[in-house]
Amino acid sequence: MKAAVVTFPGSNCDRDLAVAFEAAGFEVARVWHKDTELPQGTDIVGLPGGFSYGDYLRCGAIAAQSPICRAVAAHAEKGGYAIGICNGFQVLCETGLLPGTLMRNAGIKFICKTVGLRVANEDSVFTAPYGLGTDIEIPVAHHDGNFYADDATLAAIEAEGRVAFRYLENPNGSLGDIAGVLSSNGRVLGMMPHPERAIDARHGGTDGQALFTALAGAMAEA
Amino acid sequence: MKATVHVMLKNGVLDPQGEAIRASLGTLGFESALGVRQGKIIELDLADGTTEDEVTKMCEALLANTVIESYRIEMGA
């Protein structure tokens, strides 16, 4: 199974994400923001954390218009898998592949700590390995992670069971304590916490490992 | 020709930065500042003949995130 990890100017979690995919058994291709196509046979695209284009205009706004993001959108529209973490989540919202947007944290401060999450969905390949209602610990590191959507959008996300993870203690003001959201087909996940930073016990926790391992399992079967 | 685009958070959307500015003004003794909202001004240098319709498209495509932001266009000479 093949993963493609995108690097934008200002990405800083791209290597970590590639390592997490590799550790789970993926063959990983590194893709540049100016590339116009994903490598042949890409099963899943990873959009990493960081500060793409210096967060100019809005977090993720410029990256969302980059050539590779057109290819990512085409991949997702064909039913391909994608995961956006932190800045990657912001990019996916700006492309319109995921609903809502991420605003400045309600408390203004940059937050960098490990937080508790409750798994809120078990129907997607990303969340199935954990099981509904399981609590896990994953680090967050963001200034703009305050999930916002209008009332109608939020109601639709909830009604369709598209909340992947919720914060146990809301650190940033996100509506509905939402830490991660799925696309309507469940194949695109955006989340502010960093599962790729929780795959090695030496870094303080391994609760992120199951997500990558399960993806590898699902894609090996496909 | 020029155009100016004003981008503001929509009413009802919490503006934590505006709130921090208001609190800071209060600390300085400006208690008359009851509320502050922060936005952006984007100045565009445009090719002659560019229509407001074209600028509206720019706003919808990139300059504003209409999930949370509203925009107002002033076309200049």
Automatic annotation (TrEMBL), chain A:
GO cellular component: cytoplasm
Signal peptide range in chain numbering: none
Alphabetized GO MF terms: ATP binding; glutaminase activity; phosphoribosylformylglycinamidine synthase activity
GO BP annotation list: 'de novo' IMP biosynthetic process
Keywords attached to this entry: ATP-binding, Cytoplasm, Glutamine amidotransferase, Hydrolase, Ligase, Nucleotide-binding, Purine biosynthesis
UniProt catalytic activity: L-glutamine + H2O = L-glutamate + NH4(+); N(2)-formyl-N(1)-(5-phospho-beta-D-ribosyl)glycinamide + L-glutamine + ATP + H2O = 2-formamido-N(1)-(5-O-phospho-beta-D-ribosyl)acetamidine + L-glutamate + ADP + phosphate + H(+)
Subcellular location: Cytoplasm
SMART domains assigned to the protein according to its UniProt record, in alphabetical order: GATase_5
Pathway(s) this gene product operates in, as recorded in its UniProt entry: Purine metabolism; IMP biosynthesis via de novo pathway; 5-amino-1-(5-phospho-D-ribosyl)imidazole from N(2)-formyl-N(1)-(5-phospho-D-ribosyl)glycinamide: step 1/2
Primary localization: cytoplasm
Catalytic site: C86, H194, E196
Stored Pfam families: GATase_5
Domain of life: Bacteria
EC number: 6.3.5.3, 3.5.1.2
Job description of the protein: Part of the phosphoribosylformylglycinamidine synthase complex involved in the purines biosynthetic pathway. Catalyzes the ATP-dependent conversion of formylglycinamide ribonucleotide (FGAR) and glutamine to yield formylglycinamidine ribonucleotide (FGAM) and glutamate. The FGAM synthase complex is composed of three subunits. PurQ produces an ammonia molecule by converting glutamine to glutamate. PurL transfers the ammonia molecule to FGAR to form FGAM in an ATP-dependent manner.
Record's subunit section: Part of the FGAM synthase complex composed of 1 PurL, 1 PurQ and 2 PurS subunits.
Name of the molecule in the record: Phosphoribosylformylglycinamidine synthase subunit PurQ
Automatic annotation (TrEMBL), chain B:
One BP annotation, GO: 'de novo' IMP biosynthetic process
Keyword annotations of the record: ATP-binding, Cytoplasm, Ligase, Nucleotide-binding, Purine biosynthesis
Gene Ontology terms for molecular function: ATP binding; phosphoribosylformylglycinamidine synthase activity
Localization (cell): Cytoplasm
Gene3D superfamilies: Phosphoribosylformylglycinamidine synthase subunit PurS (3.30.1280.10)
Annotated catalysed reactions: N(2)-formyl-N(1)-(5-phospho-beta-D-ribosyl)glycinamide + L-glutamine + ATP + H2O = 2-formamido-N(1)-(5-O-phospho-beta-D-ribosyl)acetamidine + L-glutamate + ADP + phosphate + H(+)
Biochemical pathway: Purine metabolism; IMP biosynthesis via de novo pathway; 5-amino-1-(5-phospho-D-ribosyl)imidazole from N(2)-formyl-N(1)-(5-phospho-D-ribosyl)glycinamide: step 1/2
EC numbers on record: 6.3.5.3
Annotated Gene Ontology cellular component terms: cytoplasm
Annotated function: Part of the phosphoribosylformylglycinamidine synthase complex involved in the purines biosynthetic pathway. Catalyzes the ATP-dependent conversion of formylglycinamide ribonucleotide (FGAR) and glutamine to yield formylglycinamidine ribonucleotide (FGAM) and glutamate. The FGAM synthase complex is composed of three subunits. PurQ produces an ammonia molecule by converting glutamine to glutamate. PurL transfers the ammonia molecule to FGAR to form FGAM in an ATP-dependent manner.
NCBIfam families: phosphoribosylformylglycinamidine synthase subunit PurS, PRK05974.1
Subunit structure of this chain's protein: Part of the FGAM synthase complex composed of 1 PurL, 1 PurQ and 2 PurS subunits.
Record-stated family: Belongs to the PurS family.
Name of the featured protein: Phosphoribosylformylglycinamidine synthase subunit PurS
Organism: Harenicola maris
Gene: purS
